[in-house]
Every structure is written in C-alpha cells, then in structure tokens.
Amino acid sequence: MANKPGIPKGTRDFSPSELQKREFIFNTVRGVFQLYGYQQIETPAMENLTTLLGKYGDEGDRLIFRILNSGDFLSAVSEEEISTLGSARLSQKICEKGLRYDLTVPFARYVVQHREEIVFPFRRYQIQPVWRADRPQKGRYREFFQCDADVIGSDSLLNEYELIRIIDDVFEKLNLSVQIKVNNRKVLAGIAEYIGESARITDITVAIDKLEKIGIEAVNDELREKGVSEDAVRKLQPVFELKGPISSRLSGIAGMLAGSETGLQGISELQTLFSFMSEGSLSADVDLDLTLARGLNYYTGAIIEVKAADVAIGSICGGGRYDDLTGIFGLPGVSGVGISFGADRIYDVMEKLNLFEKVTGSPADVLIINFGGDELKYALRLAAMLRAAGIKTAFYPDAAKLKKQMSYADSSNIPVVIIAGEGEIKAGEVTLKIMSTGEQRKVSPGDIPGELSKIGI
C-alpha cells in the first residue's frame, strides 16, 4: 500500500471551519488597522537574498529559507568549490532568492523602491505568510502569518503610543487578556556602555532577552561564555533587581546611566511614551521591562512585546522603532516604527481558551433541496434570486433522497433548508425548515429574506 502523503514539519493544513476562525482573527485585526487610517499593501513571498541577509543578525540569517537558482544551479560552481566551500558560502553561489523572514524588511525595500509614489508619513498594514527554517515546536512554525502595521517617515513618539492602542483594541475585540511590555534599545545600549561592554551590545541583548525563560544565573553564564567580563556581569545585576512603580524604575536606571547620553535619551523617550499612556485608558496591563531586548538587529528605539496572560506560548505580538532600515537600501534618514501580530499563535491561544464559540462553521445560510425533474428549474431560479439578495445559498447537486440531503445540511451546520417540491410550487410558496428547532414555515419566495432576518440570518 502506498505511503500516506504528508506536509513539511512546521506547516499546517487548515480545514474550512479552522479557516473561518483564522479569518475572524484577520478581519478583527484588519478592521482595527483600517480604523486608525492604515492602508494595505502586499509584497512577494520571495525576495532577493541581498534584500534579506544581514538584517536579522547571524541567527536570523541562518533561518532564512533559500531558493535554488532556476535551471542548472551548479553550472556556475566548480567541483573544487563544491568540495571546499562551506554550506553558507556555497548557498550564496547557487541561491539568489529566499522566502521572506518577516514583513518589515520587505516593507523597507518597498518604501525605497516606491518612494516617488508614497506620501509620508506612510501608514501601511500587511497580512501575509512568512517562513523561518526554525525547529518546529509548540507555538513555533516554519510557515505562519503575520499581521503588520507600520508608520514610516515620522519620528514622533505618538506613533508608538498609537500602535500600543491598536494592540489594546485588537486584543480587547478578540477577548484576549494580554500583558504589553515596553523597553527602548537606547537604554540597552546605555546599559552596555555603563558596564563597559559597548562592543558586545548584541551578545548582551541576546542573553538578557532570555531572562524570563532561563533565569538570572543562566543568563550570567551565557554572558561569561560570550566573553563579557566578570566585573561587567556584576555591574549588570542591579538592573535585573530594579523593582517598584514604572517611574521609580526609570529613575533608578537613569541614575545608573547618568554618564550615557544614548541611555538617557532612551529613558526620556520611555518617560514620554508612558506619559501618553497615562492620559488614556488601556484595557491591557502595560509595563516597563528593562530586560526586554527582542533579537532583531534593526530596532533602534522603543521595543514592544505582548504575551497572553492565560496561556504560556511566548510572544503573540511585538515590534519597535527602526531609525534607518531604509538606509540599507539607499534611502537614509527615514525613521519608522511597527508592530506585528502572530496570527497563528493568537489562533492557538484562542483555541485553547475556547474563544471561537461564536464563530460558526456554516458554509451557507440555506440549502435548497434538489428534487430533480421539473422542480429543478424552479429551484435554480430560487437559488439565483437568493444569491442576488446576498444570502449564502448552497444547492445539493444530486437528486438524492430527502433524508440524505437533510443529513448533509445538518452535518454542514447549514441553519435553514428550503423545500420547493411540486406542492409548494403549485401554491406559489416554499417551506423553510429551521434545523436547530425542526420548525417549518410556509412562505412566498419574496418573503424568504425577511423570514431569515427574523431568525438572525
């Protein structure tokens, strides 16, 4: 017997009912984005590797899916190169394109390429899949959807505040309790300067970003392994130990970073951002996390991370300020800030918390019974009339037994069956059967929309 077909690890099939739930997330997020005046764009699934590489750090570069060149991709490589070059260097010769790792770098490329058509500040949103060659595990996939919103061409911290409000609105509409954590990369740079290890800012941020996951001692060990001095590790400990209200922690870190101009600028930006948030009510718990780093190299200012309060699954939304990402593509000095919702993790959280109960899995509002014969033409005209009225109408394709067609409607969660047999046609009416109660109503075809409206369809 042939082996059963499968799909690559880290990917998923979605059934019609599952897709309806996911579309509920997309539509909710899209509606909030549009409410704040964001415009939708799309970019290709694949980008030139020159666009992608070097934007995510060494770890991110390793997770980019590379696409082999078309045709004889080995024709430009000698046998010696094949045997002596490492995989990374060899892939540069046989791969010119890769699947996008996120939506932010392609957006920066888009902005530079289309700068003559864009009015700044430009608010865009994008809902598309991305790919990462990561090790699949709970809540981590190789193919997943991101829902991004970015503002580019403005330095104002009001943009960060607006994005936090968007996060709050989305999760309130999804009925998800979340915690929003905020930090600033300038503060992290100031901390690295304060402990005398500015050259190791990347190693430091990567390590302390794992604090919640692996604990202080493991973070300290990783820092030592990266070559951070024992004195620097010791000076870092008071940062981990800062407690109290946000204002107190900001004052405490300001005292430590008094000699760092960059660090103090980051603290000032955080104070401004939290002052904006104090002016308006937010449903979510928003907190300062001085150890929040987020691994992407292109962040330069505020950084944001969101976690579900009731399910341990990692970040379900995140983002931050990037001051010169477009400069890599030849358009310097254009600052941007954005957020990204992880739709697949949000889906998993909502599924676990049974938050999709109100999302029905019905493919149609009504099913018209197929009696065949002379009744068929009448039923087809009836279906066309209902679809023209905006009523989702399914038609059973075979003149099967009535019991079989009713069973199909029940299994498909179609709420109403329309019966138009010989007797109904002669009387100029149809029978509506409400599947949930078994109730039957005789109505004229023209009254069907009104009757469906009465029962909430």
Question: What would your notes on this structure say?
Answer:
42% of the residues lie in helices and 19% in strands. By secondary structure, the chain is α+β, with helices and mostly antiparallel strands. The chain folds into 2 domains: 107-352, 2-Layer Sandwich (BirA Bifunctional Protein, domain 2), CATH 3.30.930.10; 366-454, Anticodon-binding domain (Rossmann fold), CATH 3.40.50. The strands form 3 sheets. An 8-stranded mixed β-sheet has the order 1-5-6-11-10-9-7-8. Strand 12, helix 16 (373-388) and strand 13 form a beta-alpha-beta unit. It is elongated. It starts with 15 loop residues before the first helix and ends with a helix. 34% of the residues are buried. The mean pLDDT is 90.
Summarize this structure briefly.
This protein is of the alpha+beta class.
CATH superfamily of the largest domain: Bira Bifunctional Protein, Domain 2
Report helical residue fraction. Answer: 40-55%
- Silhouette: elongated
Task: Output the number of helix runs.
Answer: 19
What percentage of amino acids are in beta strands? 15-25%
CATH topology of the largest domain: BirA Bifunctional Protein, domain 2
CATH class type of the largest domain: Alpha Beta
Count of extended strands: 16
